[in-house]
Amino acid sequence: VRLVESGGGLVQAGKSQRLACTASGAITSVFNPSNMAWYRQAPGKQRELVAVISSDRSTEYADDVKGRFTISRDNARKTVYLQMNNLRPEDTAVYYCNKRPIPWSWGQGTQVTVSS
Questions:
Q1: Residue-wise over 15-39: b if at least 16 C-beta within 10 A, else e?
Q2: 2 and 108 in contact (C-beta within 8 Å)?
Q3: 21 touches 65 (CB < 8 A)
Q4: How far apart are CA 88 and CA 16, in angstroms?
């Protein structure tokens, strides 16, 4: 499986951005029942969990993104999305998606840079 993240870029604080992650090569019987998650890694920091969506579309969020970020999934497209609203400079990071709890190989990620 190859994870391809997209949608990042430079954005001003307070604005919105939508990320997408496609699990290319994943088979339906594996993708659909899997929990999928978005992570991020800021410069000099460890990769951290941002949001999780389960197979029944229940969601969980890190405290600092609750109310601002929304994770969703499209099983037909084997794609997971992260809608990010009211972005802050501290959201600047490389964003990755992956399966949980046993991840596939990590993708390249997509850089999100929020200017103040």
A1: eebebbbbbeebeeeebeebbbbbb
A2: no
A3: no
A4: 10
Question: Using CA atoms, how far apart are residues 59 and 36, in angstroms rounded to an integer?
Answer: 10
Average pLDDT, the chain: 97
Collapsing DSSP to helix, strand or coil, 16 comes out as coil
Contact 100, 39 (CB under 8 A): no
Distance from C-alpha of 9 to C-alpha of 15, rounded to nearest angstrom = 12
Q: For residues 86 and 14, give the distance between their C-alpha atoms in angstroms, rounded to a whole number.
A: 4
Both structure tokens of 115: 């200017």
Task: Find out whether 19 and 84 touch, Cβ atoms under 8 Å.
Answer: yes
**Amino acid in the structure at residue 30:** V
Neighbouring residues of 50: CB distance < 8 A, sequence distance ≥ 6? 37, 38, 39, 40, 61, 62, 65, 69, 82, 95
pLDDT in tens, 14-61: 999 999 999 999 999 999 999 999 999 999 999 999 999 999 999 999
